[in-house]
Specification:
Elements: E1 4-8, H1 14-25, H2 27-39, E2 50-53, E3 56-59, E4 71-74, E5 77-85, E6 88-96, E7 98-99, H3 106-139, H4 143-147, H5 153-158, E8 169-175, H6 196-200, E9 208-210, H7 217-220, H8 227-235, H9 240-249, H10 251-254, E10 257-258, H11 259-269, E11 281-282, H12 284-313, H13 318-325, H14 329-336
Parallel strand pairs: 1-6, 1-8, 7-8, 8-9
Antiparallel strand pairs: 2-5, 3-4, 5-6, 10-11
Helix pairs in contact: 1-11, 8-11, 12-13, 13-14
């Protein structure tokens, strides 16, 4: 069996968009996404079995009298998976798209991506058959060629022969936001059809979603790459008490977070994590501690400046004011806008 699988990317600011795209492009992270979603965390897809593929998709939907309108869509990342299964080589296309804002028409958007993929496969099959028929015509058919079934009228017109098969396409949406996804998760959720006879004639389409806020910690722990730390941090980024608990419980891994994962955490949560651009790994625990200390220092400084202003307004001289707040006279004068 061959399957095409996509993970849909939501819109986000350019910086975050670029950072998450580069992160998901990493073969270890990419494989981890689909090992979790398809196999529940079992390591079936290996990074070395993935090869980069052009993520630009151009499809030619069918039109009247052969008229077609090119439609172009872009996936963030697309990779080809090749592995031996039951003695037979199996090929699977995986695509990854990341999102940071809730998209309330995601079912339609993903459905379109899958439909374009199928249309593209039909067009590729037609091109292949036309090329082969042209070769036979130019070179002359052999007896073996003559024994093969020739396309009937329907096959010839559609370009897709009875023996051709489409590769299934599956789209997964990765939500990098800390809030719960409250958008529709299917086409039916976007409709208001009360007649069961009508709905029975319709095909539904489901949004396949990975969203940290709606995942139990045990589910997030099934990720084997740094995506585990990214999802955990995002999930608790607005809950400092639980974030500290999670960091402590997973301290070993959070002390060695790869740089690209730390970039994603900072781009999405704006937590103020600071680290050297040359660092290959980041100690997120230490970064958070330093950030907290800096915040405390800023708070103490703010209080000192406010106190100095109050003392000065009450007529306390500068020397005593400086002594009272614990800072140098020149520093206090600068705070109050007084010349030295």
């Amino acid at each position: 069996m061959s399957v095409i699988i996509y993970a849909e990317r939501r819109w986000m600011p350019l910086k975050a968009d670029t950072i998450t795209k580069d992160y998901v492009k990493d073969a270890d992270v990419f494989a981890d996404i689909f090992n979790y979603y398809i196999y529940g965390g079992r390591q079936v897809i290996l990074p070395e079995q993935l090869t980069e593929r052009d993520s630009t998709k151009i499809a030619l939907p069918y039109g009247a009298d052969g008229a077609v309108v090119p439609v172009q869509k872009f996936r963030d990342v697309q990779k080809l998976y090749a592995a031996m299964t039951d003695g037979k080589m199996e090929y699977v296309l995986y695509g990854a798209e990341n999102q940071a804002e809730i998209h309330y028409a995601m079912a339609v958007k993903n459905n379109l991506y899958d439909a374009l993929e199928y249309a593209g496969q039909v067009e590729e099959a037609a091109k292949s058959h036309r090329k082969e028929m042209k070769r036979k015509k130019e070179q002359g058919g052999t007896s073996a060629d003559e024994d093969r079934k020739k396309p009937d009228t329907g096959e010839f017109l559609s370009g897709f022969w009875a023996g051709d098969r489409l590769i299934p396409s599956i789209t997964v949406t990765i939500f990098f936001g800390p809030e719960e996804w409250d958008g529709p998760l299917s086409l039916f959720d976007m409709m208001d059809v009360s007649d069961p006879d009508v709905s029975a004639c319709m095909d539904n389409y489901h949004v396949r979603l990975i969203a940290p806020a709606q995942m139990a910690d045990e589910e997030i722990m099934k990720f084997q790459s740094s995506l585990r730390e990214v999802m955990l941090f995002i999930k608790y980024s607005k809950d400092k008490e639980n974030l500290i608990r999670v960091l402590a419980a997973n301290e070993r891994r959070f002390r060695e977070v790869e740089r690209r994962a730390a970039d994603v955490i900072e781009a999405i949560t704006n937590s103020g994590i600071k680290y050297d651009e040359k660092d290959e790994v980041v100690n997120v625990c230490q970064a958070i501690q330093e950030m907290r200390k800096e915040s405390e220092r800023d708070g103490e400084l703010k209080k000192a400046r406010e106190a100095a202003g109050n003392f000065y307004n009450l007529g306390v001289d500068i020397e005593k004011t400086a002594q009272g707040v614990g800072y140098a006279v020149e520093t206090v004068k600068e705070w109050l806008g007084l010349e030295s």
